[in-house]
Amino acid sequence: MKIVLVLTLALCLAVTCHGKATPTPTAPPSSLEERVNQLKDILNGLSRQVMLQQFFLEERTRSDGNSGLKNTRLTRDGTKNFYEPSIIDISYLAMHDHANFDRTIGMGELNPVMNGVEFRTRHNDYKLRMPSTTSGDFHATEDIPYPDVPPSVSSKPTVEDQIQEMREYFRAFKDQNTKHRDYRPFFKPVLCYLEAAWTLSTKKLDEPFQSDRHFIDAESWFDLMDKVRFTSYTGSKSVLENYAYMPTTIYNVSDGIPQYAQWNYRILCHPLADDLPTKYLKREEDLMYRLPNRKTIPQMVRSRAERFRLNSKEFDHFDRGMSILDDLMYQIPGKDNYQADLHDSSYGMVMEDVRYNNHTLVNSGYYHRYFKILRKGAMGTKSIHRGFSDANLFVAQTSQERIAPMSTKSCERVRHQSVCEHWTTRYSYALPLEIIYMTPLLSWNPYNIRYDATQKELTDNGRRNGGSTVDKAYNGTNFRFFYHTPVEFYGSGKVESDPADTAKVGAGVLDQDGQVRMMTSSGVRIRTPDIVGVGSVRTRYPIMPVHGEGAPVWKELNALKEMTMNMKRYASLYEEWPGVVENVTSSGLPGLHQFELSLTQLDPPGEHTHYFYLNSVELEELKRGINKKVTTSQELAHSHDLMLEYRANKVRIVKCDKSPNCWDGHSQYPTEV
To answer: How far apart are CA 289 and CA 381, in angstroms?
Structure first.
């Protein structure tokens, strides 16, 4: 029976992969054992061919762009292609509000790419949960603790006084004014992220993560694949959006038998160690949304369509693994949870942390995208990026046996003998998704309303609907009816809405004395309704990168968009000067100032100088106290990265290649020529 099965599978694979059956051997096998071994060889070769074809597809996707969002569900189109939503429809990442749930974050279906693997999620609606701090068990998680209520709020004698004081904390957070109220202990930032890996559970379907509203509606991975194939073939969908496309792959072939791995993902959050100023979240420009919707830049401030990038500096800059995003992602563990303490030594490399000048090893059990090595590579670099060209590839090593392993070996000639080393390791991948600021509203319950009511008690079998009368008000609250904030806190309950939003503007709730209190939802929102005297406050900042922006065409497009939107700043870069040029600077180019570093005769490298340029806008910003980072021209096989300031009516070098002074002897004061 086994022989028949092996033969059938071999023939099926042969026809599928080659279009015709494998030719019959010229000399028939002499024994049954030889026939079995021959069939194993055929199966082994065919399985490896399938595995390589899958790998080539991943490599092609990797070269198309970075890890990031590729698309969301199409809901409309138009006469020009930019009327069709791609990464942004009503909101970025299909974000919406479920503020009536205690810790549910509204997010629809996504089509991401991670390390060359393209997949499609179900409707996500994930929860504020983090990896376990006490257990290293596979996918063990726990709730993220809510921030406390400020003592100056809870100590007020009346609810009206508490409302007034709570508004002042929201004012301080919105203005980022710690002197008005030190909001930082009570407005806690969390970094939510998308994590994925190849798992070994190819038969039993594992729900990727907990959601109060959605789940994968299939009996097995193969059942899910059939349902997704049907919706793709027919152009239909799951009305509840509970299907996901998760590829299966052959990750290894052993003794002629293919070994399968299943791609799976989850969304978790990590409470950041320190406060994250909102000024570090810079708005991205998306003309594909603004143009068809005729949105001005000021109008985007209140829009759910905004997306952001993290940058702790006042200017854009090159980076090699030492940005604020790298610092934050380094706080997030992989599948071993916060107990992770792993080090990768594959190919004999000693992987060190690029953020430190000493020889600190990278804890590869936490998410990172750069490491450095002791000796230079073939291109003369010590700082190495994970992946060939994927700027957003954050990886973490794991010891979890449910993650598919990958093995390799490397052999060297030592004293005329071949010496080989073998390595087997497991990895998962992550992408930053959004920054959420948890507010004290999550903990504030000024009327001490009951929070453990069952569904039956709360709605009285459907007879209570949150009305304003005693017989219609909800009888208490629970995690699905999270109404703890007095409606008086807001000037209006209205916010920019989405059809997927679920919270009521206001609901009547009975307190423990049976009195009706008009309350509004206390869960996480993209933006709060207008707070009296404060206005609306944003608490969710999506920062997930875009897959296409890693492609050369997108990079050229973004550079052109930057120049087009800031013509005055980049006037010197145009072939034909835009508009009317008012001044010609020392460089002989309109709006461009040329500076020369002092001549140095230090040997090595030898007598030389360098040049760099500032345009008029940058020079004016420098004079206003905004430091600038520039890179000089290359001379004698090197250049310098300079941090500039303006002091005593002169441009001054603050840092030269991260040091107070240039290593080759240039002075701190360049000359305008």
So the answer is: 40
